[in-house]
Design brief:
The chain is mainly β. The chain has an 8-stranded antiparallel barrel with strand order 1-2-3-4-5-6-7-8. β2 and β3 form a beta hairpin.
């Protein structure tokens, strides 16, 4: 074998050995970037909302109204609107109002009285446990009674209310609530020479949409 052939064979062998050694070395390429992990969005009670409510009510008329009319019971349907602000420590402050039609009445031989309309404007304080929020509420209440003792009169009564409930988020926008309210309406004159107000307990449910 000639010298030139030997040199060529040696160079080829060295080139093949270098290639094999390089293939065994760790890669210097940067690792592929990891896909970002989508974090679940935390739920918040912040914002304006509106909805519908329905209630069962029972109690008694006060003063002469109790003897003249008896103890009222019935139901109510209405609209609700409000606003919540959730603080960083999960306490929720809000204001809520509602306006509804009612059929809460009683009658006796002396006549009848019916609570036909009722409205409230209340503050709410709740604590957010993710999508569940228990709360307490208190504020203004008012209602219109229709009294019939042979002559009739429609009378508006001012008053107040206090209660508690729990609201649960069904989706990011829809929520449902159940609450109990005590309502005290002031005494006012009714036809026949007496005065009457109302002490009522309401068991109420509601469905709200958060905008």
């Amino acid at each position: 074998m000639t010298l030139i052939a030997r040199i060529g064979l040696t160079a080829s062998s060295l080139l093949l050995a270098s290639s094999a050694f390089a293939a065994d070395l760790p890669s210097k390429k940067a690792p592929a970037a990891m896909a970002p992990i989508a974090m679940p969005r935390s739920f918040t009670w912040n914002g304006v909302y509106g909805g519908l409510n329905g209630a069962l009510a029972a109690g008694n008329f006060t003063n002469e109204g109790k003897d003249a009319f008896g103890n009222p019971s019935g139901g109510a349907l209405g609209f609700t609107g409000g606003y919540n602000y959730q603080m960083p420590n999960n306490w929720v402050l809000g204001v809520e109002g509602d306006l509804g039609m009612a059929n809460v009445k009683s009658s006796s031989a002396g006549g009848s009285s019916e609570l036909r309309y009722m409205n409230t404007l209340r503050g709410r304080v709740g604590y957010a446990m993710d999508r569940t929020m228990p709360y307490v509420t208190a504020g203004y209440a008012g209602g219109t009674t229709h009294d019939d003792t042979g002559s009739t009169a429609d009378t508006y009564h001012n008053g107040w209310t206090v209660g508690a409930g729990v609201e649960m988020a069904l989706t990011d926008n829809w929520s449902a609530k159940v609450e109990g309210l005590y309502v005290r309406l002031e005494d006012k004159s009714f036809p026949g020479g007496g005065t009457s107000g109302a002490d009522l307990g309401l068991a109420r449910i509601g469905l709200n949409y958060r905008f």
